Amino acid sequence: MKFVLTANLVVAFIWGLIVYLTLPTAENPAPNWWIDLLILGGILMLELVFLFRMKVLYGFSLVLLYTLALLIGLKIMLSIDQLLTLSGIGLALLEILVVVYLIGVRGYLRSESGRKAMNFDDKQKVGLS
After folding, report:
1. Is residue 92 part of a domain?
2. CB within 8 A of 114, min separation 6: which ones?
3. Cα(2)–Cα(34) distance, rounded to whole angstroms?
4. Whether 67 contacts 73, CB under 8 Å
5. In this predicted model, what pLDDT tens digit does every residue of 36-87 receive, in sequence order?
6. Which of 67, 108, 120, 127 pairs with 29 at a CA distance of 20 to 30 A?
7. For the chain, how many structural domains are there in total?
């Protein structure tokens, strides 16, 4: 679980930089900025759920992981015109890597070791079936 907490913190920091560097101005309106802001909020919420091991929000965190992956996919589709630049390709590769990471974290949370990390007993029914 320490790896997940550390990796989430790194992803949140990188996404915070993306949000800061793409701040919309009057000359350059950035509609993707709002999507980035939603993704950053979701990653920070996941960090809090994992940090405090909130059993109540376990099922919500599983749904939130897929929702964040879908939001990142939407952002990739909306920024298809930037894929012709080197920075756009790098950003798309970073976003795809984060999607794979989020789906991997969901798989970890559904596993037996993930349930133990969230302090669930074997007898408790958790999350989505």
Report:
1. yes
2. 108
3. 30
4. no
5. 999 999 999 999 999 998 888 988 999 999 999 999 999 999 888 888 899 8
6. 67
7. 1
Which pLDDT does position 126 carry in this prediction? 56
The vertex-108 CA angle with 59 and 124, nearest 5°, equals 50
User: Which residue has tokens 């909306």?
Assistant: 78
pTM for this structure? 0.85
pLDDT at 125 over 70: no
123 domain residue, yes or no:
no
Domain span including residue 55: 2-117
6 found inside a domain: yes
In whole angstroms, give the CA distance from residue 107 to residue 127: 12
126 occurs within a structural domain: no
